[in-house]
Amino acid sequence: MIQRDLTHGSERQHLLAMSIPTIWGILAIMAMHLADTWYVGQLGTDALAAMGFTFPVVMIIGSLAFGVGTGTSAVIAQAIGSERTDWVRSYSTQSLIIALAIALVFAVVGLLTLEPVFRLLGAPERLLPLIRDYMGVWYLGGFLVVVPMVGNAGIRAAGNTRLPSYVMMGVALTNLVLDPVFIFGLFGFPRMELQGAALATLCAYVVACTIMLYVLGVKLKFLSLQALRQGVVQSWRDILRIAVPSAGTNLIAPVATAITTWLIAQYGADAIAGYSIAARIESLGLIAFGALATSLAPFAGQNWGARKLDRLNRALDLSFRFAWLWGLLFAVLLWVAAEPLIGLFTRDPEAIAAAKHYLYIVPVTFGLLGTIMMTSSVSNGTGNPHPALLMTLLRLLLVYLPLAWLLSQWLGLEGIFLANAVANVLVGVGAFLWIKRKCRRGTNARQAEQRRKAMWEERYATDEYLFGTEPNDFLREHAAELPVGDTLSIGEGEGRNAVFLAGLGHRVTALDASAAALEKARKLAREKQVDIETVHNNLDNYRFEARRWDTVVSIFCHMPVQMRRRLHQQVVKALRPGGIFILEAYTPAQLKYGTGGPPVEALMMNLASLREELKGLEFIHALETTREIHEGKWHHGMSAVVQVIARRVG
């Protein structure tokens, strides 16, 4: 099922093998846009201007699709890394439905508001018929562009960047062939001009859509009819949780570019021309960063899902070193060859001067811009898109644009370019410090988790039942209040509570991170002649299906605060309406008794925090108390506990 398992093997080889095809894919798309521009330019200035007015709208749709693709890639890669095959299919299937929904909404709204929107963008009346010709076709077939963008993100999540790149190269080649045929009416086809340009693009994307669906559905088996019905709400929530901030991140850049263009326009048309040339030259150097960042996201997702943070940390270090080295080399190249490169585009001395100023100032900070891109990619890939959004907001809206206006008052055009460099430095350094701190904390937490797991494996690796074979007293006392049905016992350990509930008719699934404990649970079940299902999984990796359980049991299941909060939030969603969550745990006051439980206050629970974590449940029983506990040799004596019984109402 997995095209490339990114959780094993050389980090360098994985990133290199994924990045090189991505570079070709990016170049293919750039070539396609250049071909469109050249062919449409043969129709005259008005046609070219009309197509120019469509760019902001097409860019918005592309940003939304890219955002959904980012969310899709992140959740699929994490599901692959944690070996949750059912959720891979659910995410893949539902992501295409989300993409289709976005395209259809845009088509309806776009067609109904076509002329008012483009008038608002400043299009003169004489261009509106030409814009209508292009966008009328594009809106109707926009789903052919959006759906492959999202589907290809799912393929990349599986570690295969080669196929999406080949598909994009095929799209570019098909578009290159069809453009003159449809635009100018060759080989018996009618002359369609701008309508033909849009139609050629959409026909090219039919190829992409067909290949993408075949690969996802047949080769990877990422699509299924069952996924149309199961896990729908949870899949949409997980994808959009990343997609919405990611789309916002992508929408900020064109806004900042528009404002930058307005600022530079104050210095004349030559300044705009020089800036445009410099930006195009700059984009060639940034292709490598974009390709590596695109490859880093699925790598981060798979290894985050597999909890292999050491691999993620090493890959990030490799990416940073490449960004700094390539940024320095490209800056030196531009210092040496700026004038001849600019001369390929213009002979105007004022435009050349403006472009030279940009290429002498900004590229020296490309390494730190690459740092921002890599950090954002890892953030999105690990399912945390908000830092990427914050970095973009800081760099473009809070640092660059205000500083560009301020410095332009003192230094003129060069002040705008200097502001760009300063923003790259400030946010790049901040991004580096933040992500390294996060990696250190994650590695430390992972190591602590591994030590805890090893400790419990060692403790459970005896014939003795550490906590006895009888159920917890609190659970026994309230067992009659629990719905008899599908029951999940988290942190079950050696099976005493699961076996007890199975004896009452519950269909019990016992979840624990210790294989040794679950083996003893199965042994106890055989002795008591009951059936239980056991699941060996870390609690932070386990995927709770929405509305799956009638009862969820948590008896002395202590874990780090952040993990516990996430788990309890999932428990709320996992309960069916009327379902019950029952919990008993130690409070911080237990430390003075020393009769059981973890020796760290941070792992304890209290009623106030549980009420916050279990929002959405109606508390039936909620109590902090002290009581005698006699459960094997590890829980024995007077103890301070918190007890909760809570019901999901709707």
Automatic annotation (TrEMBL):
Bilayer-crossing regions: 15-35, 47-76, 96-114, 134-155, 167-189, 195-218, 239-265, 277-297, 318-338, 358-376, 388-410, 416-435
Keywords: Cell membrane, Membrane, Transmembrane, Transmembrane helix, Transport
Record-given protein name: MATE efflux family protein
Bilayer topology annotation: Multi-pass membrane protein
Cellular compartment(s): Cell membrane
Single GO MF descriptor: antiporter activity
Entry-linked InterPro entries: MATE_fam (IPR002528), Membrane_Transporter-Flippase (IPR052031), Methyltransf_25 (IPR041698), SAM-dependent_MTases_sf (IPR029063)
GO cellular component: plasma membrane
PANTHER family in the record: MULTIDRUG RESISTANCE PROTEIN YPNP-RELATED
